[in-house]
Amino acid sequence: MKYFITRPLALIILLCCIAETVKSEDIYHVVVAQDGSGDYKTIQEAVNSIRDFGFQRAFIHIKKGIYKEKLVIPSWKTRISLIGEDVEKTIITWDDYNKKGNTNTFTSYTVQVCGKGFYAENITFENSSGNVGQAVAIHVEGDKCVFRNCRFIGNQDTLYAAGEGSQQYYADCYIEGTTDFIFGAATAVFDNCTIHSKKSSYITAASTPGDVEFGYVFIDCDLTSDFPENTIYLGRPWRPYARTVFIRCNLSKHIRKEGWHNWSHPERETTVFYGEYGNYGPGSDTTQRVSWSRQLNEEEASGYTPGKIFTGSTADKYETEPWYLFREQ
Fold it and tell me: Which CATH class is domain 27-325?
């Protein structure tokens, strides 16, 4: 007896086989250890080993150590997770800086993240060049990137939250620097982070595109410094439509009474959006803030939550939960 498979049935069988292949593909786990006890000795080797545009998230577990690497996560390496063993003892470091040879600000990074859906936890990202000018610890331009319990150590331009259209979420992180040490065009939320100023200067330098509603949003953060009171600005506009908002943050005495600076571009006072709501601490007094900053009301402030700020509920079609809630499995 002969059996015939109709075209619709054949298509169903084919689709089931493809779905099963995606479902059954092993989640990729590798270990990086400098002493040779893992799968790789360097993080870059581990990143390079991962399948391009893979279906499953790839986990790279990094043992304690100081990894002197100029690490790149290219755009075709998506959904990569770097999981450190100990945030203070798992350190990725490099020492490039602007005008070191052919290096400029945008190539001075220790780590560059271009891949979508990147995740990092328990890692210190450091630029160890010292107080020598612009020297980026991490350059993030991939979309839907998450950092949890990470440290970002540097001086000027520590964290370059870049990429027009890039969305980034930083939770329970420590970020330190001197001048404009959080800068760039991304939409980035800093949730319950410590922001430590090491110089009498500026904390943020957003370059938000003019057609983007949200730039940098700090929620429930602690702003700290060892510098005297009234010495440090919350931010200044790197580009005309910079947007930066602080919600329920602890502003210590180092924050200047005027709060914001126009970067010697008075015309930008009419295009920037600098806002505050519900902040507390000695630096939170808004009675002497610049007239072109905003004090949000309760209704306006209610729109500043990750769920309302970020677009696209998941990192890609293979994940079901909101991308900014992702944690190590």
Answer: mainly beta
